[in-house]
């Protein structure tokens, strides 16, 4: 019988590895044995922990799997397995820790990427809390209504819903419907659109003077969405549903 570490766990000898002996433990309730790495990223890892951590750090810095395998002289399949294991651990950590967020201003967008070829693009729906710079949720898949709904439902499940957040997106067709369905009257929603006005096509130079018959130029990119919100009349800010209080900002290419 080994020495008791706690009421249900005792020391249960050692096991041999490449780098020496490691302590083994045994649960007195179920009779199973385990080690310090059980349930962690390093469980049954055939390399040093520092090597695993370096592979994950290189991936975060932008190196692809082939480059990491060449630099660290590790088999490509091992690098792929390690990164998949690290990604799964990050997802579980986010699900446990990113809860009860106090979101003041939220931005959502979708990015287009390609895997294998341009014929089947993959879209990444992302969101960011502007004040904390935290990315609370991401969805990978098609540019569809279901993925848009899944993104905002996941964000809503992580919020504490004590405030009245400002949500900003681009002009994608499903955003307004999804915000209405998920948040209802509990937010202020705005769309930031970008388009080229008719007078910009005949004036390619940025320093050109606007013709006298042109209308007022659009807002510049430097004017933020929150600043524009203060320009709204109080009646618009007090509307119960985002559709009545929503606004569009036309940003020029200058």
Distinctive features:
8 helices; disordered C terminus; alpha/beta; three-stranded antiparallel β-sheet; 3 domains; extended; six-stranded mixed β-sheet; Nucleotidyltransferase, domain 5; about 250 residues; single chain
Characterize the structure shown.
A hairpin with a 2-residue loop joins strand 1 (9-17) and strand 2. The chain has helices spanning 49-60, 65-72, 76-97, 145-158, 175-182, 225-230, 234-237, 242-245; strands at residues 9-17, 20-27, 33-34, 105-114, 121-129, 138-141, 166-169, 188-194, 248-251. The model is unreliable at 196-254 (pLDDT under 50). The strands form two sheets. It has a six-stranded mixed beta sheet. A three-stranded antiparallel beta sheet has the order 1-2-3, with no helix packed on it. Helix 1 (49-60) crosses helix 3 and helix 2 packs across helix 3 (76-97). The chain has eight helices and nine strands. The protein has three domains: 1-36, no CATH class; 47-97; 105-204 and 213-251, 2-Layer Sandwich (Nucleotidyltransferase, domain 5), CATH 3.30.420. The protein is extended. Helices cover 31% and strands 22% of the residues. The longest helix has 22 residues, at 76-97. By secondary structure, the chain is of the alpha/beta class.
């Amino acid at each position: 019988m080994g020495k008791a570490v706690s009421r249900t766990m005792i020391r249960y000898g050692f096991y041999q590895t490449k780098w020496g002996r490691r302590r083994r433990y045994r649960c007195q309730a179920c009779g199973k044995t385990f080690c310090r790495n059980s349930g962690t990223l390093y469980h049954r890892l055939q390399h040093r922990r520092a090597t695993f951590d370096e592979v994950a750090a290189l991936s975060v810095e932008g190196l692809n799997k082939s480059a990491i395998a060449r630099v660290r002289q590790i088999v490509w399949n091992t690098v792929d397995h390690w990164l998949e294991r690290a990604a799964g651990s990050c997802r579980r950590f986010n699900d446990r820790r990113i809860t009860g967020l106090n979101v003041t201003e939220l931005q959502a967008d979708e990015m287009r990427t390609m895997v294998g070829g341009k014929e089947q693009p993959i879209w990444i729906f992302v969101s960011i809390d502007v004040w904390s710079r935290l990315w609370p949720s991401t969805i990978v898949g098609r540019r569809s209504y279901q993925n848009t709904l899944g993104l905002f439902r996941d964000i809503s499940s992580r919020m504490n819903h004590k405030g009245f957040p400002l949500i900003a997106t681009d002009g994608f067709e499903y955003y307004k419907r999804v915000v209405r369905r998920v948040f209802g009257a509990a937010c202020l929603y705005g769309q930031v659109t970008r388009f080229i006005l008719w007078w910009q096509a005949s004036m390619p130079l940025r320093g050109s003077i606007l013709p006298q018959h042109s209308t007022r130029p659009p807002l510049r990119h430097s004017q933020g969405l929150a600043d524009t919100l203060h320009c709204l009349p109080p009646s618009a800010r007090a509307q119960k549903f985002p559709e009545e209080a929503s606004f569009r900002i036309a940003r020029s290419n200058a």
